[in-house]
Amino acid sequence: MLIPRQKAPALVIDTLDHGRFDLHQAAPGWGTVICFYRGLHCPVCATYLAELEKLVPDFARRGVDCIAISADTEDRARGMADKIGAAALRIGYGLPLHEARNWGLYLSTSRGKTSIGIEEPALFSEPGLFLIRPDQSVYYLSVQSMPFVRPHFRELLAAVDFAIDKTYPARGEYTAAV
Questions:
Q1: pLDDT tens digits for 116-154?
Q2: Considering only Cβ atoms within 10 Å of each terminal Cβ, which end of the chain, N or C, has fewer?
Q3: Domain total for the chain?
Q4: 127 is a domain residue
Q5: Can you give the residue range of the structural domain that contains 127?
Q6: What's the CA gap between 48 and 137, in Å, rounded?
Q7: Cα 2-6-9 angle, rounded to 5 deg
Q8: Collapsed DSSP state (helix, strand, coil) of residue 90
């Protein structure tokens, strides 16, 4: 289980148009949003990532980098990038499923073609949203077992504003006996 204020797992992933992304080499001003998504087969993911694409400049103005990552192949990741009109959002692909588990993501098996007629991969990860500080510590995390009811990016943006203004610490860090 990932714990706020502790170091995030290693994450080195190929991206479509921005070379390799290495979380431990990243140098954002305030943090990095990592949005793990299910893949091209998921219409909910497309809508979700389209919203993040619109807000990447707003996050950047606050010193927050953004990346969306799936276990999809490069071709499928390109299909998602095209579908959402990705210009600012980095799209990572080829996430090994054992690394998805290191991040606490749930894994699902294929149910065949989705409502939009795209075949699900045999295995894929479910969504997760993380905000990682420049020292690679976990600041915020939300992991879902279903594609529905995800955190809103505008609310995360407002939370970043609050955290910056109030020097608000990551919460949920307590692991001792209760």
A1: 999 999 999 999 999 999 999 999 999 999 999 999 999
A2: C
A3: 1
A4: yes
A5: 12-144
A6: 25
A7: 60
A8: strand
Share of the chain above pLDDT 90, in %: 99
For residues 72 and 80, the answer to whether their CB atoms sit within 8 Å is yes
Residue 157 contacts residue 58 (beta carbons within 8 Å): yes
Residue in 147, 131, 150 with CA at minimum distance from that of residue 62: 131
Confirm if 154 and 55 have CB atoms less than 8 A apart: yes
E strand or H helix at 71, and its extent?
Answer: none
Q: Within its chain, how far is the Cα of 103 from the centroid?
A: 10
Q: What is the pLDDT of residues 42-54, one digit of tens each?
A: 999 999 999 999 9
CATH of residue 95's domain is 3.40.30.10
Task: Give 91's strand partners.
Answer: 68
Packing angle, helices 74-84 and 43-61, rounded to 10: 70
Burial code (b: 16+ CB inside 10 Å, e: under 16) for 36-56 equals bbbbbbbebbbebbeebbebb
pLDDT for the residue numbered 64: 98
Report pLDDT for 109: 97
Residue 149 in 3-state DSSP? coil
